[in-house]
Amino acid sequence: MSQRQNIYGFHAILARLKRHPETLREIYLDEARHDGRARELTNIAESLHVRVMPVPGQRLDGMASGGRHQGVVAAVDPLPLHRDVFELLDDLQDAPLLLVLDGVQDPHNLGACLRVADAAGVHAVIAPKDRSVGLTATVAKVASGAAETIPYFAVTNLARTLRELKEHDVWLAGADGDAAEDIYTAELQGPLAWVMGAEGAGLRRLTRESCDLLLRIPLAGTVESLNVSVASGICLFETRRQRLVGASASKAQSKHSV
C-alpha cells in the first residue's frame, strides 16, 4: 500500500484535484473559512467525490508541520511514478527542453524551479536521488501546481543519465559563472538540457565535465551569483526566446519561397 502524504495550500491542492483526483484521500479545511476560495475548492472536491472535512485551524498547523497551509491540508497518495525520461523523449514532437538540477537541497528553490520550468515549457526536470530534496509538501506548495504538471525524474546515477541524454542527441548546457561564453551568444535552439548546480557549490566536477558547453549569465551589478531558480528562469526563457525567433524566421522564409 502506498504511503500517505500531506500537501497544503490552495494552489497545490486544486492542481492535484484537477489532474490526479484519484490520489486524494480527504481534504481538511479550516472550519473558520467560508470565503470564495474555500467554496470553490469544496465544490470541485465534492464533484469528484473527495471528502472535505472542517477542522480547527490548530490541527492544520500540526498536519502541515509549521508550513503556510492557508487553511487547507490534503491527505494524498504519492503521484504515480513517471515513465522513463527516454521514453518521454521518444514521444516528443518538438525539440526537447529539459532542466537538470544537480543537488538542489532547499525545498523552496526546487519548488520555484518547478514553477519556472512549467512557465518556460520544459518537458521534464531531472535530479539525482541523493543530495536532493525531492518532492516534499513544501516543494509542492511553492511550485503552485507545477509539481503536478512537470514530469520529475529522480535518477540514481546523474552522470550516467547525462551520458545517455547525449546519446539521444540532447546537448547539455551547464550554467557556470566562470564560463567564457555567455547565454546570449550561444546557439540554444536545438534539443537541450540546462544543467544547474546546487546552492552555493555550483556544478560538481563530473557534472561539469559531462556538459557540451558551459555558459554564464552576464551580471551587470555587484552581485556575484543568482539564486538557482532565478538563473534557471533566465536560461530557460533565453532558450525559449531563441526558439520563437527561429520559428518565426523559418516561417517567414517558407512564405517568401512559395
Helices and strands in order, then pairings?
Layout: E1 5-8, H1 10-19, E2 24-30, H2 36-47, E3 51-55, H3 57-63, E4 72-76, H4 85-91, E5 97-102, H5 107-120, E6 124-128, H6 137-143, E7 152-155, H7 158-167, E8 171-175, E9 181-182, E10 192-197, H8 205-210, E11 213-216, H9 228-257
Parallel strand pairs: 2-3, 5-6, 5-10, 6-7, 8-10, 8-11, 9-11
Antiparallel strand pairs: 1-4, 2-4
Helix pairs in contact: 1-2, 5-6, 5-9
Provide structural commentary.
- There is one protein chain.
- Strand 5, helix 5 and strand 6 (124-128) form a beta-alpha-beta unit.
- This protein has 258 residues and is an alpha/beta fold.
- The protein has two domains: 5-76, Ribosomal protein L30/S12 (60s Ribosomal Protein L30, Chain: A); 85-249, SPOUT methyltransferase, trefoil knot domain (Alpha/beta knot, 3-Layer(aba) Sandwich), CATH 3.40.1280.10.
- It has nine helices and eleven strands.
